[in-house]
Amino acid sequence: MNKPKYVIVVGIDYSMASERALDEALTLASTKHGVHLHVVNVRGAVDEHATSAEAPAPLPPWRYWAAELREYVARKVAAFPGHRRRRALPARPHSPTHGRPGS
User: Fold this and answer.
1) How confident is the prediction along the chain (103 residues), in pLDDT tens digits per residue?
2) Domain span holding position 98
3) 2 belongs to a structural domain
4) Whole-angstrom distance, CA of residue 43 vs CA of residue 60
5) Is 6 left (phi over 0), alpha (psi -120 to 50) or beta?
6) What pLDDT, on the 0 to 100 scale, is given for residue 46?
7) Which of 75, 80, 65 minimizes the C-alpha distance to 30?
8) What is the 3-state secondary structure (H, E, C) of 43-95?
9) CA distances from residue 36 to 45, 63, 82, 92, 103 in whole angstroms, order as listed
10) Residue 38's pLDDT is what?
11) What integer pLDDT is reported at residue 17 of this predicted model?
12) Residue 96: its pLDDT value, please?
C-alpha cells in the first residue's frame, strides 16, 4: 500500500508576507517525508503602476517569470538551514491570470 504524499502549496508575490509563507513551508517540509512543495507565482493582470489614462505596460513572457521564480526559490532553499541534506525543490510556475504555461 502506498503512503499518501504530503503536499504543500505556497503562493509567492515577492512580498514580505509571501516570503514568510515560503519560509514556513520550507520548515514544515523539512519535518515530513515524501513532501511535494509547490510554489505558485501570483501576479496581477496589468501593470499596477500604470495610471488609468496610460495603456498598461506589456507583460513579460511567462518564461521570464518562470526563471525569476526558480532563481528566487533556489536562493531561499540554499539559505534554508540543512538544505544540503535535502534534494532541490523544483518550482513549476503557474499564473492564475494567464493559465498554465504554453496555453
Assistant:
1) 577 688 999 999 999 999 999 999 999 998 888 889 999 998 776 555 555 566 666 767 888 888 999 999 999 999 888 655 444 444 444 444 444 444 3
2) 1-43+57-103
3) yes
4) 11
5) beta
6) 54
7) 80
8) CCCCCCCCCCCCCCCCCCCHHHHHHHHHHHHHHHHHHCCCHHHCCCCCCCCCE
9) 28, 22, 17, 12, 24
10) 93
11) 95
12) 46
Number of domains observed in the structure of the chain? 1
Single out the residue of 21, 13, 1 nearest to residue 93, CA to CA: 13
Q: Which cell numbers hold the place of 32?
A: 515530513
Q: Which of 38, 46, 91 is nearest to 68 (CA)?
A: 91
Q: Are the beta carbons of 36 and 6 closer than 8 angstroms? A: yes
Predicted pLDDT at 53: 63
Element (H, E) at 27: helix 16-29
- Kindly state whether residue 52 falls inside one of the protein's structural domains: no
3-state SS assignment for residue 97? coil
Residue 49 belongs to some domain of the structure: no
> Is residue 94 in some structural domain?
yes
